[in-house]
Design a protein that fits this description.
Number of strands: 28
Distance between the termini: 106 Å
Number of domains: 2
Largest sheet: 14 strands, antiparallel
Helix content: under 10%
C-alpha cells in the first residue's frame, strides 16, 4: 500500500531513535532517498540506509549498499559498490564521504571518468565543482581495455574539461613502464577542441627526414578538419587536408587530399601542340592525391555510396603509403553506386574506374585498366506462385566493360601454332 513520503518521515520522527521502515522512500533537505531498509536516530540526527540505497541530490545520483546521512552536518557516508554520477562525470569506489550541500568530499579506492578520460587513486578528493586531487594515481585517455597507454604518478591534480598535473609520472605502454618525468601536464577534455596535435617525425631513403605538424579544427559537432604540413629534407613542403562530416546517424563522409611540388620526383610531359617533337618536353614536379568516402542514406530506402582514390602517378601510393593505405594493391578502385531496396526487390547501379598499379613504368598512362561503365543489378526474391508449392525469382546483371584508347590486347605468338606436328 502506498504511504506518502512525508507521512513516512513523520513516523520516523514520532517513533524516535529506534524508528525503522522497510522499503522506504522519502525526501528531505533537497535530497531524495530510497532504500530497502531505513532507520532514524533522532539523538544524533542521522538516517541509516541499507540495501539498494539510492540518493538523488543536485542533479547527481548516488547508489551503494549502505549509507549514513547526517542531517546536521549535511554529509552522506556511503559504503559498498559506491557509484556517483551526473551528466558530466561517472565515478566508482569502495567508500565515499560527501557533503551534499557543497558537493565536496572524498572517494576511496576508486576512479573518476569523464568522456574517454579516466583517472584512479587510492584516495580521490573532490576540491571543487570540477576539481579533484588523487593520491597514488593513474591516468589514461585510451578507450581500449586494458588501455594501450597510461600514466601513473604520486599525485594528480585534475580539472574536468581542463588539464591534469601529474607529479612524477611514469609512462606505461601495455602496463610496462617506459620512462619517468618530474611532472607532466595532460588534457582532461572530453569534448573535441581545436588545437595543435603532437608533432610527428618520419624517415625514408628518398625523402630523408620528415617533420609534420598538424592542426585539428573542431568546426562543429558534425564536422571537423585536420590540416597537416610536412617538411621533407629532400622533397620539400607537403600540405595535407583531412575533412570529415556527419549528415545523420547513418550518413557520413570524409575527404583527404594533398597537392605539392616534389623536388625529388620528375615527370616528363610532352606538350600537346607538337607530340612528335622530342625537344618540347616539360619537367613536372606536381604530385597529388585525393581520397573521398561517402555514405548517404536517402528516403525510400535509397542509398548513395562513393569511394574515390585518385593519384597523380602510379608511384604515389608507394612513396606515400600512409596517404592511401593501398600500397601493394593491384589497382586503385573508384566506385560510385546507388541502391534501392524494397521488401522483395533489389535494384542497384554503379560505375567502377580502376587505376592499374602493376604497370612497369610508373609514369605510363592508365591505358590497360578495364573499367565497368556501368553495372546494373536487379534481383527479385523467391515468390510463391499462388497456392502452389512452386516459387519464382530471378537475378539479373548487366555490365559494360571498357577501357581507354583500345578495346583488345595485341595477340603475340611465341611458339608453334596449335596442331603443328
Amino acid at each position: 500500500m502506498f504511504v506518502p513520503s512525508m507521512l513516512k518521515l513523520g513516523l520516523l520522527l514520532l517513533l524516535g531513535s529506534a524508528a525503522f521502515l522497510a522499503d522506504a522512500q522519502t525526501s528531505l533537505q533537497g535530497i531524495s532517498i530510497n532504500a530497502n531498509k531505513m532507520s532514524r536516530d533522532t539523538s544524533n540526527n542521522t538516517i541509516e540506509l541499507s540495501g539498494n540505497v539510492q540518493v538523488v541530490f543536485q542533479g547527481q545520483h548516488l547508489s551503494c549498499d549502505r549509507a549514513t546521512i547526517n542531517l546536521k552536518t549535511r554529509e552522506v557516508e556511503a559504503e559498498g559498490n559506491v557509484v556517483l554520477q551526473n551528466p558530466k562525470v561517472y565515478s566508482e569506489g569502495t567508500r565515499l564521504k560527501l557533503n551534499y550541500d557543497t558537493n565536496l568530499g572524498v572517494l576511496y579506492q576508486g576512479f573518476v571518468k569523464a568522456g574517454q578520460v579516466i583517472f584512479e587513486g587510492e584516495v580521490i578528493e573532490k576540491t571543487g565543482e570540477d576539481e579533484y586531487v588523487a593520491e597514488k594515481a593513474y591516468y589514461s585517455a585510451c578507450a581500449t581495455c586494458p588501455p594501450a597507454w597510461s600514466f601513473t604518478g604520486s599525485k594528480i591534480k585534475a580539472e574536468i574539461g581542463g588539464y591534469a598535473y601529474i607529479d612524477y609520472p611514469v609512462l606505461r605502454i601495455a602496463d610496462v613502464p617506459i620512462f619517468i618525468l618530474p611532472w607532466i601536464l595532460v588534457p582532461l577534455k572530453s569534448a573535441r577542441q581545436s588545437g595543435f596535435l603532437v608533432p610527428k617525425f618520419s624517415f625514408n631513403d628518398t625523402g630523408k627526414l620528415g617533420f609534420a605538424i598538424s592542426y585539428f579544427w573542431a568546426i562543429s559537432r558534425s564536422q571537423d578538419a585536420t590540416i597537416t604540413l610536412t617538411k621533407f629534407e629532400k622533397r620539400g613542403l607537403k600540405p595535407h587536408l583531412e575533412y570529415r562530416y556527419v549528415l545523420s546517424e547513418n550518413s557520413t563522409g570524409s575527404f583527404r587530399g594533398s597537392f605539392f611540388e616534389d623536388k625529388v620526383f620528375e615527370r616528363k610531359v610532352r606538350t600537346p601542340a607538337a607530340p612528335d617533337d622530342p625537344q618540347l618536353v616539360q619537367q613536372k614536379h606536381e604530385r597529388w592525391f585525393f581520397d573521398y568516402d561517402h555514405h548517404f542514406e536517402m528516403p525510400e530506402q535509397i542509398t548513395h555510396r562513393a569511394n574515390l582514390n585518385m593519384v597523380s602517378d602510379i608511384k604515389y601510393a608507394r612513396d606515400f603509403p600512409r596517404d592511401l593505405d593501398m600500397d601493394g594493391e593491384p589497382a586503385l578502385e573508384n566506385r560510385i553506386s546507388v541502391t534501392k531496396n524494397h521488401h522483395n526487390t533489389h535494384l542497384s547501379g554503379e560505375v567502377d574506374f580502376y587505376v592499374n598499379q602493376l604497370i612497369e613504368d610508373p609514369l605510363e598512362e592508365n591505358r590497360s585498366s578495364v573499367h565497368r561503365f556501368p553495372e546494373v543489378h536487379f534481383d527479385l526474391m523467391d515468390q510463391q506462385l499462388g497456392e502452389t508449392p512452386f516459387y519464382f525469382g530471378f537475378d539479373s546483371h548487366y555490365v559494360h566493360f571498357t577501357r581507354r584508347h583500345f578495346a583488345y590486347d595485341d595477340v603475340v605468338t611465341t611458339g608453334a601454332a596449335i596442331g603443328d606436328g
